[in-house]
């Protein structure tokens, strides 16, 4: 799930705050920078040095493939596009849309802090065109052709929970990356928006973000040899010949087919290919249909010919490539949120996690330790003592990835809006809006309950 507002993050409408709480004596002082984190701790090498056997493989590629198959099969938040029938029923399409696009019942505010009129919300609901859904429609496929925002409603209107909050757009759901397969399930009443279903999400996106093609085209594209982006971002080279593929942004974990048999010495879009990989990228033709064209990815860009090995060292390195990136609710602001952050890190090593925190935390396909009110503080602390690098720690609406242990205390890296901590008798707030490193044990909520006592799940991926 996306983190909420100024404080640390609560699910959906609440804003959780972090404060220092019962820090162990051996841990760095909360009065230091960012609750006991100094500059040396802001480098991946520091944390790799704390891990025993940091290069051990947690899951082999065949095990990762089996895990992904279980997630796709067993997790109700996922969609197996290849298994959909040739025809979609009206109840199926309507169910997808109504699950995402329920008319808001609470007051929302626009970017100027004014309440959004009921008539505006009524018009957005009308734009869903639910009555226009046919009893049966052919299952149509497509590929995302650029980084695409997925929205609650077919609109770019930004809305917020309260005046003055201009960061957390409640109509922003997530973003999908170029080459993501989708089913095109429906169109808005006025036409510019499509309701699409990806393997991990279902929501509205602008029509120009999608190129429609046959199932053979879409799935054939996914089944080719590829390069995978292993940096926070990579971009194709500039090309005036193909503006739709020029400096195309590719986020971490994005897989792009590589034209391995491209003739030596043959230019790509007017440029020699000796210092670059020749990729095959989808684009949208004037009539909205899918086509493919070559583009260049510089060899100096952070990419690989396969997903990185799933090791503690790689988990740390990949997470730190996002350090300091601006927080973006629903992968807004050209960035990502807490669950988007951990999903992209794990995707670069081949693991396809569900999109939102609640689904990740409870996925029946993942090994997780679930907590209830029956788990007392001692039981929770025993679970904390067993934390390992890469473990995912969940509270309602938020997830953090364990970096490791330092001076007897666990530390995490996470994408967070802000933190609040106690300095003596006072509470001091720091707005972060970024990927940050913090200790785990000092954190608590504004009501004084310890963070550890509100953990809902710990997910461990690997042996």
TrEMBL record:
<feature type="signal peptide">
    <location>
        <begin position="1"/>
        <end position="22"/>
    </location>
</feature>
<dbReference type="Pfam" id="PF12913">
    <property type="entry name" value="SH3_6"/>
</dbReference>
<keyword id="KW-0732">Signal</keyword>
<dbReference type="InterPro" id="IPR038765">
    <property type="entry name" value="Papain-like_cys_pep_sf"/>
</dbReference>
<dbReference type="InterPro" id="IPR027017">
    <property type="entry name" value="P60_peptidase_YkfC"/>
</dbReference>
<dbReference type="InterPro" id="IPR000064">
    <property type="entry name" value="NLP_P60_dom"/>
</dbReference>
<dbReference type="InterPro" id="IPR051202">
    <property type="entry name" value="Peptidase_C40"/>
</dbReference>
<dbReference type="Pfam" id="PF00877">
    <property type="entry name" value="NLPC_P60"/>
</dbReference>
<keyword id="KW-0645">Protease</keyword>
<feature type="domain" description="NlpC/P60">
    <location>
        <begin position="309"/>
        <end position="452"/>
    </location>
</feature>
<protein>
    <submittedName>
        <fullName>Probable exported protein STY2149</fullName>
    </submittedName>
</protein>
<comment type="similarity">
    <text>Belongs to the peptidase C40 family.</text>
</comment>
<keyword id="KW-0788">Thiol protease</keyword>
<dbReference type="GO" id="GO:0008234">
    <property type="term" value="F:cysteine-type peptidase activity"/>
</dbReference>
<dbReference type="GO" id="GO:0006508">
    <property type="term" value="P:proteolysis"/>
</dbReference>
<dbReference type="InterPro" id="IPR039439">
    <property type="entry name" value="SH3b1_dom"/>
</dbReference>
<keyword id="KW-0378">Hydrolase</keyword>
């Amino acid at each position: 799930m996306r983190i909420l507002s100024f404080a640390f993050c609560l699910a959906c409408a609440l804003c959780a705050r972090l404060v220092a709480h019962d820090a162990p004596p051996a841990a760095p002082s909360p009065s230091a920078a960012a609750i006991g984190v100094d500059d040396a701790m802001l480098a991946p090498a520091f944390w790799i040095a704390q891990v025993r056997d940091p290069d051990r493989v947690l899951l082999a590629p065949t095990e990762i493939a089996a895990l992904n198959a279980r997630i796709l099969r067993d997790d109700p938040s996922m969609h197996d596009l290849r298994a959909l029938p040739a025809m979609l029923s009206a109840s199926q399409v309507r169910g997808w849309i109504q699950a995402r696009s329920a008319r808001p019942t609470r007051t929302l505010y626009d970017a100027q802090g004014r309440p959004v009129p009921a008539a505006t919300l009524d018009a957005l609901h009308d734009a869903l065109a639910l009555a226009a859904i046919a009893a049966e429609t052919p299952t149509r496929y497509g590929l995302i052709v650029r980084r695409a925002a997925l929205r609650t409603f077919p609109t770019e209107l930004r809305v917020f929970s309260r005046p003055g909050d201009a960061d957390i757009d409640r109509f922003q759901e997530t973003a999908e990356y170029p080459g993501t397969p989708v089913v095109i399930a429906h169109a808005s009443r006025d036409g510019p928006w499509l309701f699409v279903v990806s393997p991990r999400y279902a929501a509205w996106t602008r029509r120009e973000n999608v190129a429609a093609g046959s199932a053979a085209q879409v799935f054939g594209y996914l089944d080719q040899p590829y390069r995978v982006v292993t940096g926070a971002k990579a971009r194709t080279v500039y090309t005036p010949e193909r503006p739709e593929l020029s400096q195309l942004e590719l986020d971490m974990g994005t897989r792009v087919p590589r034209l391995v048999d491209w003739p030596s010495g043959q230019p790509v879009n007017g440029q020699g290919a000796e210092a670059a990989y020749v990729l095959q990228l989808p684009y949208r033709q004037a009539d909205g249909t899918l086509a493919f064209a070559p583009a260049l990815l510089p060899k100096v860009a952070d990419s690989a010919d396969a997903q990185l090995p799933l090791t503690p060292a790689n988990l740390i390195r990949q997470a730190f490539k996002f350090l300091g990136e601006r927080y973006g609710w629903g992968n807004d602001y050209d960035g990502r949120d807490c669950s988007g952050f951990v999903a992209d890190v794990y995707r670069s090593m081949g693991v396809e996690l569900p999109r939102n925190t609640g689904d990740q935390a409870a996925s029946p396909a993942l090994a997780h330790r679930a907590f209830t009110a029956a788990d007392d503080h001692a039981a929770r602390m025993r679970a904390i003592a067993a934390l390992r690098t890469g473990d995912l720690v969940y509270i309602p609406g938020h997830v953090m990835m364990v970096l490791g242990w330092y001076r007897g205390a666990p530390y995490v890296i996470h994408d967070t809006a802000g933190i609040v901590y106690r300095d003596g008798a006072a509470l001091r707030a720091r707005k972060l809006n970024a990927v940050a490193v913090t200790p785990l044990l000092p954190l608590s909520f504004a009501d004084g309950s310890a963070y550890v006592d509100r953990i809902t799940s710990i997910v461990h991926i690997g042996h």
